[in-house]
Amino acid sequence: MSTIILKDTALVARLRAGLLDWYDRHGRKLKWREGGRDAYRVWLSEVMLQQTTVPHATPYYEKFLKLWPGVRDLAAADDGKVMAEWAGLGYYARARKLLECARTVVRDYDGVFPASETELLKLPGFGPYTAAAVAAIAFGLPANVVDGNIERIMTRLYAIETPLPAGKALVRDAAAQWVDAVRAGDWPQALMDMANLICRPKSPACGECTLSVACTAKARGDQERFPVKLAKAPKPRRHGVAYVMLNGDRVIVERRPDKGLLGGMLGLPHAEWRAEPYGAPEVRWRLAGSYEHVFTHFALTQQVWVKAVSEAEATALLRDNNAWQWMHVGEKALPTVFAKALKLKDARVEPDLFR
After folding, report:
1. Count of Cβ atoms closer than 10 Å to residue 180 Cβ
2. Secondary structure (3-state) at 142
3. Count of CB atoms within 10 A of residue 256's CB?
4. Looking at CB atoms within 10 Å, which of 8, 149, 185, 276 has the fewest?
5. What is the C-alpha to C-alpha distance for residues 88 and 55, in angstroms, rounded to an integer?
C-alpha cells in the first residue's frame, strides 16, 4: 500500500491561504451559500447533492425551502408530499432518512442541529461525510471533509496509487493535513470549487491552480490518471414491463411500499424486474417502446405497454388494488424510471387509444 509523504507544514499553510484567497475571488454563487451558516440549509443541500449535480439539485433545493423553510416545517410534513417533491432526485432512501432526521432533530434536540460531529453522526442518514460537512460549513469546526471532488485533489497532490475505494484511508490522511480551525467552513467549499472549476477530471487547468507547485501528479505529468480506481464489474441486467393505463388525461399510478427500492414513491404499476426478457404484449395492450434505466446495483430494460381503460374498468381496478390511484398526466413528477415510460411518444394520451 502507498504511504502519505507529509508535506511541509509551512508550505501547507501558505498554499491553504492562497486557495482561500482564490475562493474569495472565484467561488461559485450557489443557492445554499446564500443562507449563511444555517445548519438546516447546509444539511438539506448536502443530502440533495449526493449522487447528483449542482444544476440538477438546485431547483429541488429551492422548492423544498419554499415548502419547508425550517427543520420543524419539514418534520411536520406529510410523507407522501415529501416523497413526491423528491421524485427525480434519485436514491429515494435519502428522502425517507431526510424526514426521519428532521423529526429526530425536533424531538430529541428541540429543533436545533447539534454542533458536534460526534452528535451529528447519531442522526438518521448522517455518515462520516455529511457529519463532517455540516460540522465544518454550518458550525465552523475543523472537520476533515472528504467527498469525490476532494478525493481527486488529494490523490493528485500526493500521487496516491492505491486504487479507490481501498485508498480512501490514505486520502483522508492526506486531507487531514490541510484541516485548520482558520476558516474551517470555507476550506472544504474552496476545495470543491477548485475541483469543479480547475482540478477537473479531464483537462485540468493546472496553470490556474494555486496548489500546483505542490502537486506530485502534475510534476509527473499524469494528473488525469488520478484518482486510480478499480475497474467496475458490469451490472446485472433485468427486464420489466411498465403498464400505462389511461383514461382521458389520467393515468393509473401506484403508491409503492415504504420499504424497498423507490419506497413510498408514486410509480407506474409494473411487472417483476427479472433476468428473462418479456415477450409481446397481451391482448388489448399495445407496445409503445422500451427504454434503459440504470440503478445502483442493476441495469433495467423496460417495455412500456399502453391500454385505454373505461371509467367502469378503472373503478374496478382501483377497488381491487388499494395502492393504485389516478394521477393527471404531468400533475406530479414520478421517479425517473417511470417518468421515462410516459415520455415515450406512443405512451402519451392520444385520441386513437379510445377507438
Report:
1. 14
2. coil
3. 19
4. 276
5. 13
d(CA 176, CA 142): 9
**CA 87 to each of CA 48, 258, 262, 335: distance values in angstroms, whole numbers, following the listed order:** 12, 14, 9, 5
Q: What is the mean pLDDT of residues 280-288?
A: 91
pLDDT 10s digits, 209-254: 999 999 999 999 999 999 999 888 899 999 999 999 999 889 999 9
- CA 63 to CA 61: how far, in whole Å? 5
The span from the CA of 128 to the CA of 187, in Å, is 17
Helices and strands, counts by H and E, the chain: 14, 6
Q: C-alpha grid cell for residue 7?
A: 508535506
What residue type is assigned to position 308 of the chain? A
> Nearest to residue 253, comparing CAs of 346, 332, 141?
332
Q: How confident is the model at residue 262 (pLDDT cuts 50, 70, 90)?
A: confident
Q: Which of 181, 180, 161, 183 is nearest to 171 (CA)?
A: 161
d(CA 178, CA 181): 10
Catalytic positions are 46
Please give the Cα distance from 119 to 126 (Å, whole number): 10
